[in-house]
């Protein structure tokens, strides 16, 4: 039975029986929606602007870089200064002979390179001494994700993946719509933080849910589809930003559809093991019938009372008391730090490769498609660990190379950069499913959230790279390269998980690698 056939069968179980694609489309929508917090890349980005010269131009009839501008504004790297202009002599006429080249004054009005409106325009965040207000938005978003991961795993493992998804999408939609009406910077930053406090939970919950619903042989295909929809979501963010005249309109277009999920509260499926842990045993068969594809019932189609009680007794702290699993969680966390730093850092850095930030972002996202296919082929051919090693190393080498290539060789830099971004995307695609395969059911999402939470150290650091790039344009790429090579070596210290049964108990998790699937039969 293929993944698509299984998902279609799954969709016919409950209130969506008349609409067999409902659950599938709903989960795809959640995956796409989970990418929308990346919109801060466009709403809180720095933009190019320069001083308005009232003696020489009309603010409604001018351009960003006219030929005469060099006589009135200092230039650096062939770009006009953002906040300073040359002082003029007392008569104040527009003449190059009246400029005082050894004296500059700060501007209070500006001419922008593009017509789009960001928070820079609306909240007056101008000049380098205010640049931190833009970069801190990405950091606040990362902190919000850390807060989210602190509770998401507990709610998911305790009350169900579906309930967490509904909570996450609905709250994120409402907060984001309110954020689009922000009247000042503080309000915007506050709501950006609380958006990610809720929004960050939906991707992990959806991934764990799907991984638990499909059989071991189907997990790679399922993860491939999940990551494909995640890429589509990022593409939608980039195109929406490109077409939207202002950041407010972009946020509304992206998040208003999220409110529709409240109408589909009962359409989110749930895995049978969690149904047993959450509901009475005599109701479990009604909610989730025995079907092929539920990995925990592959052979017998049933779960015994003893098995349920054993899983119930094994909580998060029981898992952490097991030395093998504790060390595994620590190594996973370190990989997550490297993966997040590389993936989000390279995504943020992509908008600086050339002048057109939208083309840069869309190309950077488009490279995720071959990355997803590479992940699938690599996992099938070379297994998880070696695929991760090669992907990390590829990213590291490419980043180190781009750091030494002259900026004039634009296409060479872009191609090598995209190859490195492809490697980072392979790792990002792989690490989610890899983590879910390493830990038992009762604590699976909790540990995934823990690793993600620690990994957000990388996400917190990534938005600060534009500040480092101002001092040395190649420095961020050097850091990317070193971290990638180090993480690649670390990836070898894990058991292989391809085609293994998801562990239900601590004992099965400790023995991970000894339980495999061959010809749809579980072998121990």
Alpha-beta classification: mainly alpha
**Any idea how many domains?**
2
Please, what is the CATH homologous superfamily of the largest domain? MFS general substrate transporter like domains
Number of helices: 22
Largest sheet: 2 strands, antiparallel
Strand order of the largest sheet: 1-6
Specify the CATH class of the largest domain: Mainly Alpha
Give the tally of β-strands. Answer: 8
Q: Can you tell me the CATH topology of the largest domain?
A: Growth Hormone, Chain: A
SSE order, as H and E? HHHEEEEEEHHHHHHHHHHHHHHHHHHHEE
Average pLDDT confidence is: 77
Distance between the amino and carboxyl termini = 22 Å
Second rung of CATH, namely the architecture of the largest domain: Up-down Bundle
Unreliably modeled segments: 1-20, 275-305, 515-524
How would you describe the shape? elongated
Compute the CA-based radius of gyration.
Answer: 26 Å
